[in-house]
Amino acid sequence: MDANQPSFTDVEYGNRRRVSRREAFLEQMDAVVPWAEWVGVIEPFYFQDRPGKRGRKAKPIETMLRMYLLQVWFSLSDEGVEEAIYDSYAMRRFMGLDFAREQVPDATTLLHFRHLLEEHRLGAALLAAQGEIFEREGWVMRGGSIVDATIIAAPSSTKNAAGERDREMRQTKKGNQWYFGMKAHIGVDAGSGYVHAVTVSGANATDLSQVPELVRDDDEVVYADAGYQGAHALAGKEGGAALAGVEFKVATRKSRLAGLPAFDRVLQSRQAGIRAKVEHPFLIVKRDFGFVRTRYRGLAKNRNHLNVLFASANWLMRARAVALMG
After folding, report:
1. How far is Cα 167 from Cα 182, in angstroms, rounded to an integer?
2. What is this structure's pTM?
3. Where in the chain is the domain with CATH 3.30.420?
4. Quick one: which of 296, 299, 310, 324 could link to 195 by a disulfide (CB 3.0–4.6 Å)?
5. What is the CATH number of domain 141-301?
């Protein structure tokens, strides 16, 4: 059978009157993700231990990457994404699988692939590679960033194999409510709204502690909400030398806003409009990708997961922008 010849299932589904939201989403992402570039990031690590190795032939990197991204985008377990691909025509089509010739990689194969990404911090490498593409295509505007953080809850139950809560997660109070988990910190290009840096910390860490990791070398101005009071003093502290030439535009606390002159209130309103761009990636990660609770134990695994999530959010924003222009 010709690999490019449509199957009976393809013909049947091609006659549908309506495309599902899942299929439309996967078609969007398939069109914007630079598969060759991302495969190139993973390839040196994927095959480094395989020469002379016996056993089953390694699955193509792109096949495993597509399966992993389905897991990330739909918040599925290793076993769950394997089952979902068997059940979903849209997912099977995204994977490029024809069951007459090959089967879905099993959950264990995906587990090994995910561990490879985590071990070599390839989530951050994929985000960095994406940034190079955005820079080359002129999709970002250098010179300014927005920084912000959000709390991601972690399971507080001790009903697990270890009999204890995740030791790397922390407890913090926001308003009148206590949270147990971690914080996701991001740096966003002020012109385009695309995420260019991601860090994680325990939930009790201050937002200011991660700022040096979120600001680019050529950023001249950084926008932040009222939780970043004191950011202007970071340049004088250890590890903050790179921030010496950065102007921080930090929001005035609400309790003081009403007492400002009219001109200053207008200025604060305009800056709030710029800062609002940072909420969009958070919204996609939490609402569209369903990441409202940590999936793994420890900060390192969740850091890798978040880098891929925010890179995916960038691609989704890019796909939507292309659709609007088209």
Report:
1. 11
2. 0.90
3. 141-301
4. 310
5. 3.30.420
